[in-house]
Design a protein that fits this description.
Chain lengths: 441, 301
C-alpha cells in the first residue's frame, strides 16, 4: 500500500517533467491557427515590466484597442530589473512576445546585431520628425525600433526648502557653477534655519555624472575611448561632497539611500534625476510615501551660458524607450504590429502617455497640454519650459562596445566617488581598459 | 526469451517491481540533473571555444578566448582578488569555526542556545546580511567605525567604500556567515573522538595543549580535510555576497572571477568568453582539490 503511493508520487513527478521537456513552444501552434484567419481579429503580445506599478503598457494597449477594435494587445509581464536577461532568454528560446521594449539603448545593439529586431523603417518614415529619439534606433540607414517615451534628465527642486534657506529658486539660466554655489548656499542657509536637509543629492548611478558630461561636453565621444571630458564633472561632484552640500557617496552606498526618499522626504533641496521621477513623486505624495511640498523642475545646469537660459535650448541626456518587433512573429500579424508601433509614436499615443504622467517621445503642444493637465505636475512656466524645450542627447551610442565601455566607466565612477583613486588615475585606468579589453574585441 | 519468462523464479516479479520503484525515485532527480546541470556543463566546454552573443549560432574561434584571457588585465585582477579572498578566508574560517566548536563542545550552561546563535548567520538571507553589514561598515555613521573612534583609532578605514579595505570587509562578513556551518561539522567530528583517549593522556600527564595537539587535531583530520576542500571550492566561487555587498567595487577592488564571468556573460553578452573563464575557474578548483587529496593521502600513509 505504502509503496504504491510512493510509486504514484514518483510518477507524478516524472511525467510532467517528461512532458515539459518534450513539448514544443506553444507559440508556434497558436500562430498557425492565427494565420488561417488572417482577416479576423488579431491578438498581439507586448512585453512589459511591473505591470501593476507601470501602467503605461496597459494604457497604450487600451487606447490602441479603442482606435482599432480588431486588434487586441496583451501585455506580458517581465521583471523590471532582470528585463533584458529574461528577454534575451525568451528570444533565444523562441517564446518572446510579438512586440518587445527596448528598455535602454545599451542593450539595443545586442538585439539588433543578434538579428532579433524587424526592420521598421516604414513606420519611422510614417511617424516623421515629431518623434525624438528615433535616430537612436537607426543602424546603417534602417530603423529597428520606434520610441514611445523619451525621458530626459531635469533638475528637481524643493521650493519650500529654497524659501527656508532664503536662496533664489532656479530661473533656467544656471550653469554648473551656479548650481554648485546654490547647493552650498542652501546647505548653510538650511542649517541656519535649523533644518538638516542638504543642498542637493546625487544618486550612486554613473549616469548622474557621466551622462551629463557626455551630453554637454563638445566633441565628447564615448566610443573614442578618451574619457578626459569627465574630469571637470567629477571635480565638481567631489567638491560638493567635500563641502558637505550633498550626501557622501560612501554614506549613500553603505546605507542604501534611495533617491525617492532623499528628495521626497525633503532631505535635500535639489536633485538631478530623470523625468520618470515626476510621476513617481506625484504618486508617492498621494500615497503618503513622500511629503507634500512645493516643487518644480528646471533644466539641468549647463556647461556654459551659451545653452543656458529660457531663450536657448538646454542640453540634457536620456535614452529613448522604444518598441521593436520580434522577427519570430507570425507573418500575418506584422501589419498589425506596425500599426501599434505607429500608434505609440503618434500624437494620440503620446497624449495617452502624457495623461498618466509619462514623457512621450512625440513632442507637440497638444501633448504638453495633456501632460500638464495630469494632477500634481508643477505648472509654473519654468517647469513647462523644462518639459517642452530641451536637446536630449543619448547616453548610450548604439555600438557593440557600449555595454563593455559602460562597465569600465562604472568602475571608474565607484573608485572616484568613493575616493579610492584620484580622478586622473581612474580616467587613465579606464582609458587603458577600454583600449585593451573592449575596443580591441 | 519466452522460456526464460515462463520459467522465471517467483522472486523475479518482485525484483522488477523494486527496480522500477527504485528508478522512479532516481529519475526525477536524474532528469533534473541531466537537463539543468549535465547538458549545460557539456555545452559550456563547447561554448568556451566559440564567440556567441546568445542569438544565432555560436562561431567556432578555437582557443582565441584563452589567448585573450592571458592579455586581459581585468581577468588577472579578478584572479588576484579571488586568491586574496581565498587565502584569508580559508584559514580564518577554519580557526574560528574550530575554536567555536571546541568552546561549544564543553558542558556549558545554555550551550544549545550558543550553538544555534552561531549557526544563525548561515541560514540568514545573504541580501539581508549584506545590507546590514554595509550599514555597520558605514564610514561615518557605522557602529564599527564609531567604536574604533571610541577606542582611539583616529582614522578608521573606509571599509566597503575604500579600495584597500573593501576586500577585508568582505572577508570578515564571509567568515562570519560561514563559521557556524563549519563549526557544526567540527562539533560532529569532536563528538566522535572517544573520551578514553583524553583520559589516558591525562593519566600520562599531558596538559591541555598537548591533548589538543596530539589527540584532537589528528582525530579531526578527516573532518578538517573535508572542510578545507569545501572552503576552497566555496571561496573560489564566491559570488553572491560580493555582488550584493560591493558589486565588485570600488573600482575593481573586490571583483572576483565568478562576478567577472557574470559580467562578461549576462551584462555584456559575451557568452563564449564567459564560458572560457568558467572553465579556467573549474580547472583551478579541481587542481587544488586534487592537490589536497594527494596531500591528505600522503599524510594518511
Amino acid at each position: 500500500m505504502k509503496r504504491s503511493i510512493l510509486t504514484a508520487i514518483g510518477l507524478a513527478v516524472v511525467v510532467p517533467l517528461a512532458v515539459a521537456s518534450c513539448s514544443s513552444s506553444p507559440a508556434t501552434t497558436s500562430s498557425t491557427t492565427e494565420s488561417a484567419t488572417a482577416a479576423g481579429p488579431v491578438t498581439l503580445s507586448l512585453a512589459g515590466w511591473s505591470l501593476k506599478t507601470t501602467p503605461e503598457f496597459q494604457a497604450l494597449a487600451d487606447a490602441f484597442h479603442a482606435a482599432n477594435p480588431s486588434i487586441t494587445v496583451v501585455p506580458k509581464e517581465y521583471d523590471a530589473t532582470n528585463y533584458d536577461t529574461q528577454m534575451t532568454a525568451d528570444l533565444a528560446a523562441g517564446s518572446a512576445p510579438d512586440i518587445y521594449v527596448q528598455k535602454n539603448l545599451k542593450n539595443f545593439a545586442t538585439y539588433q546585431i543578434g538579428g532579433q529586431l524587424l526592420d521598421v523603417s516604414d513606420v519611422a518614415t510614417e511617424v516623421g520628425g515629431d518623434v525624438s529619439g528615433l535616430s537612436g534606433y537607426k543602424v546603417d540607414g534602417k530603423t529597428y525600433a520606434i520610441p514611445y517615451r523619451q525621458d530626459s534628465w531635469y533638475l528637481y527642486y524643493n521650493k519650500d526648502l529654497f524659501d527656508a534657506a532664503k536662496v533664489a529658486v532656479p530661473d533656467g539660466s544656471w550653469t554648473w557653477d551656479d548650481y554648485a554655489a546654490a547647493a552650498e548656499d542652501l546647505t548653510s542657509g538650511l542649517k541656519t534655519a535649523g533644518n538638516e536637509a542638504l543642498g542637493t543629492y546625487q544618486h550612486t548611478w554613473q549616469s548622474t555624472v557621466q551622462g551629463l558630461a557626455l551630453a554637454q561636453t563638445p566633441k565628447a565621444d564615448l566610443l573614442s575611448g578618451d574619457f578626459s571630458y569627465l574630469k571637470p564633472f567629477y571635480e565638481r561632484a567631489l567638491a560638493l561632497q567635500a563641502a558637505g552640500a550633498q550626501a557622501d557617496y560612501g554614506t549613500v552606498t553603505t546605507n542604501n539611500l534611495t533617491y525617492q526618499a532623499q528628495f521626497g522626504t525633503q532631505k535635500s533641496a535639489m536633485m538631478i534625476m530623470g523625468s520618470w521621477y515626476v510621476a513617481t513623486l506625484i504618486a508617492q505624495q498621494v500615497k503618503g510615501d513622500a511629503n507634500t511640498f512645493n516643487w518644480g523642475i528646471a533644466p539641468v545646469p549647463q556647461i556654459d551660458s551659451s545653452t543656458a537660459g529660457t531663450d536657448n535650448t538646454p542640453v540634457t541626456f536620456g535614452d529613448p524607450t522604444g518598441l521593436g518587433i520580434n522577427p519570430a512573429i507570425d507573418k500575418s500579424k506584422i501589419a498589425a504590429a506596425k500599426e501599434f508601433l505607429a500608434f505609440v509614436a503618434s500624437e494620440d499615443g503620446a497624449k495617452t502617455l502624457a495623461g498618466i504622467g509619462i514623457t512621450p517621445a512625440h513632442v507637440s503642444d497638444a501633448v504638453t497640454t495633456a501632460y500638464f493637465s495630469f494632477k500634481g505636475v508643477p505648472t509654473d512656466d519654468l517647469s513647462k519650459f523644462t518639459f517642452g524645450t530641451h536637446d536630449t542627447k543619448a547616453e548610450n551610442p548604439v555600438s557593440k562596445y557600449t555595454a563593455g565601455l559602460q562597465n569600465v566607466l562604472g568602475d571608474l565612477h565607484s573608485s572616484v566617488m568613493s575616493g579610492s583613486a584620484s580622478i586622473d588615475d581612474a580616467i587613465k585606468t579606464a582609458e587603458d581598459r577600454a583600449k585593451n579589453e573592449v575596443l580591441n574585441q | 526469451m519466452a522460456t526464460t519468462l515462463a520459467t522465471r523464479r517467483p522472486g523475479g516479479r518482485l525484483r522488477l517491481r523494486n527496480t522500477l520503484t527504485g528508478w522512479s525515485f532516481i529519475l526525477p532527480n536524474f532528469v533534473g540533473f541531466a537537463l539543468l546541470t549535465l547538458v549545460p556543463v557539456v555545452a559550456l566546454f563547447y561554448l568556451a571555444f566559440t564567440s556567441w552573443n546568445v542569438f544565432g549560432a555560436a562561431k567556432w574561434i578555437g582557443t582565441a578566448n584563452f589567448t585573450r584571457m592571458v592579455g586581459d588585465a581585468s581577468f588577472w585582477t579578478a584572479f588576484r582578488n579571488t586568491v586574496y579572498y581565498t587565502v584569508f578566508h580559508i584559514p580564518l574560517t577554519l580557526v574560528i569555526s574550530l575554536g567555536l566548536a571546541i568552546l561549544l563542545n564543553q558542558k556549558l550552561r545554555g550551550v544549545a542556545f550558543f550553538r544555534t546563535a552561531a549557526f544563525f548567520p548561515y541560514i540568514t538571507s545573504i541580501v539581508a546580511i549584506a545590507v546590514v553589514w554595509n550599514m555597520l561598515f558605514s564610514p561615518q555613521y557605522g557602529p564599527i567605525n564609531q567604536f574604533l573612534h571610541a577606542i582611539g583609532v583616529s582614522n578608521p578605514p573606509g571599509w566597503t567604500t575604500s579600495g584597500t579595505w573593501a576586500m577585508p570587509a568582505v572577508i570578515i562578513v564571509g567568515t562570519w556567515r560561514e563559521m557556524g556551518y563549519y563549526m557544526l561539522l567540527f562539533l560532529a567530528g569532536l563528538q566522535s573522538i572517544p573520551g578514553e583517549l583524553y583520559e589516558a593522556a591525562r593519566v600520562d600527564g599531558a596538559n591541555a595543549w598537548q591533548r589538543f595537539r596530539n589527540i584532537t587535531i589528528p582525530s579531526l583530520r578527516p573532518t578538517t580535510f573535508f572542510i578545507t576542500v569545501m572552503l576552497t571550492i566555496g571561496s573560489f566561487k564566491v559570488f553572491d555576497l560580493i555582488l550584493v555587498m560591493t558589486n565588485g567595487g570600488p573600482g575593481q577592488s573586490t571583483l572576483v572571477l565568478s562576478q567577472y564571468i557574470y559580467q562578461k556573460g549576462f551584462v555584456e553578452n559575451q557568452f563564449g568568453y564567459a564560458s572560457s573563464i568558467s572553465i579556467v575557474l573549474f580547472a583551478i578548483c579541481i587542481a587544488i582539490t586534487i592537490f589536497q587529496f594527494l596531500m591528505n593521502k600522503r599524510r594518511d600513509a
